[in-house]
Amino acid sequence: MCGIVGLLVKTPALRERLGELMVPMLIGMTERGPDSAGLAVFTDPLPDNVRKISVYSGLTEDGADFNWLGLSHDLKSHLGTTVGVEAKGNHAILTTSLDPEVIKRWIKERHPKLHLLSTGRSIDLYKDIGTPAEVAARYNFAKLKGSHLVGHTRMATESAVTPDRAHPFTAGQDFCLVHNGSLSNPNGIRRMLEPRGISFETDNDTEAACRFLEWRLREGDDLEVALQKGFEELDGFYTFLMGTPDKLALIRDPFACKPAVVAETADYVAIASEFRSLAHLPDIKNAHVFEPAPEEMYVWKI
Amino acid sequence: MENLTFDLAQTSLRELNQFLHNDAKKGEVDKVTVLNPDGAHNIAVGLDCPVTVEVHGHAGYYAGGMNKTARVVIHGSAGTGVGENMMSGVVHVKGFASNGAGASAHGGLLVIDGDAGLRCGISLKGGDIVVGGSVGSFSAFMAQAGRMVICGDAGDALGDSLYEAVLYVRGNIKSMGADTQIEPMSDADYAAVADLLRQAGIEHNPKEFKRVASKRELYYWNADANQEY
Predict the structure, then answer these.
(1) Which of A259, A285, A289 sits opposite B77 (nearest CB)?
(2) String of b and e for A53-78 (b: at least 16 CB within 10 Å)?
(3) Domain ranges across chain A
C-alpha cells in the first residue's frame, strides 16, 4: 500500500493556501502509508538562468544540525559566486545562477552524504521517514505556497524504509513522480537506461519509472507521448501521479489495482488514493467526484 | 418508529456500527441516517436486521459488506468492495462504485445507479447486481450463481471463466472473457430483466438486453486445447 495526493489550484488566490489545504490530504493517507512521506511543490518559476536545488542532510553525521551556513561559505569561496541557502533543520533550498550540475558535482565530492532531492526553476522537494503528520510538521508543509503539488505517504514493499527511498522521486529538472503499487520489471528498465548514461541512486522500483519517463521527456516526447510509452514499457501495478512546472498528470495500470479518486471544482483539482483525503476540501459537496479509468491519461494544466 | 441520525463528524464509526449490530436488532429504530461519511471504510458492514441505513455522502471501502436483510442506501459514491459478500437485503449506491462491487455476494440485491469499476460481481455466488451505467473490465470473473444486469457497456473480458451466473448487457461489450457466449433471450430472461430493473427503479426496455452465459467448455479438461481458450 501507499497513499498519493495531488492538488492543483486554479484560483490564483488559493496558491497562498496550497500547503494548508494539502496537509489534511496527506495526513488522511496515514493508514495507507505510515512509514515515510514527502511532497514536491511547484512555485512560480525562477528566471531563465536561475535554478534551485533541494538538499537533505538527514543522512549526514550532523543530521538536522548540518552546518548550512558553512556550506554556503564554502560554495562561495570555491566557486566564486553567491549561492542562496534557505535552510530549515535537515533541509535546504540552494539557489544559484551557475550551472546546477557544477554545484551538484561539488556537493557530491565534498559532502557525499548530502542527498540531492530535486533541481529546477519551479520545484521544491521534501521527503523523510516518519508519519505524514510528523513529516508535515518537520517541514512546515502547511505554509507552502504554489500552483500545484504532488504528495505521497509510503508503506514500503519493494525497498527499505529510508529517506532517499521515500517519494516523490525526481529525475532531470522540474519533474517528479509518486507511485502507489509495485513494478514487476524495474530491473529491465534499469538495464535499458543504464547503458544510455542514466544512473540510479537507489534500488527502488519507482525510481526506474521516474527515470524512464524523464528520459522520454528529455528525448523530446511531450508528456502524453511519454506516458503512452510508459504504458507500453512499465509492467506491474501502479497509480502514478506526476508533476511538471505547469501540469499534474495521472495514470493507472490496465488492471486499476491501485485506487485513485479525483474531485474537481471551479477552484481546484484534487487527487487522492481515497476520498477520505478529499473530504475536508472547500465546497467538496458540490465537487465533480470521479474515479479515473485504467490506462487513460489525465493531465491537468495550471 | 424512530429515525436516528449519526453524524460521523461528531460520532465514531464504531459507535454507528455497534448500534447497527446490537440495538438496531431490537426493532425500535427502522431508519438510521448517516451524515458526513467522508469516505470512511466499513460503514454499515455485517448488518443482520431489517433496518434502513441512509448514508449521505461518499462511502469508503466495503460499505454494506456482508449485509443480511438490511437496506443500505448511499447517496454518493462507494469505494472498493461495496456490498461484497452480502447475503440478503439491498445495497443501493446512488453515485458510482469503485472496484469489486458486489464481489462474492451470496444473495440480496446491489444497485449502482452510476458506473461500476473493474471486477464488478467477481465470484458472484447468488446475489443480483443491477448497474445503471457501465462496468469495468473483468466483471463477473468466475461468477458462480446470481444475475447481473448491466444497462451501459462492459469492459474487457466480461464473465471470464463464468460458471452458472447469467449476465444481461444492454450496451457494448468491449471483449468477452474465456468460455462465455451471447445466447438468445427467452421469455424467462425478459421477465427476469424486467423484474430486476423494477426492483432497482431503473427504466429500460428488457428487449434491449442480451444474455451472456457460460459455454461450459472449461467445465471439462480438454487435452487438445493447448491452454488456448
Answers:
(1) A289
(2) bbbbbbebeeeeebebeebbebbeee
(3) 2-45+128-301, 48-121
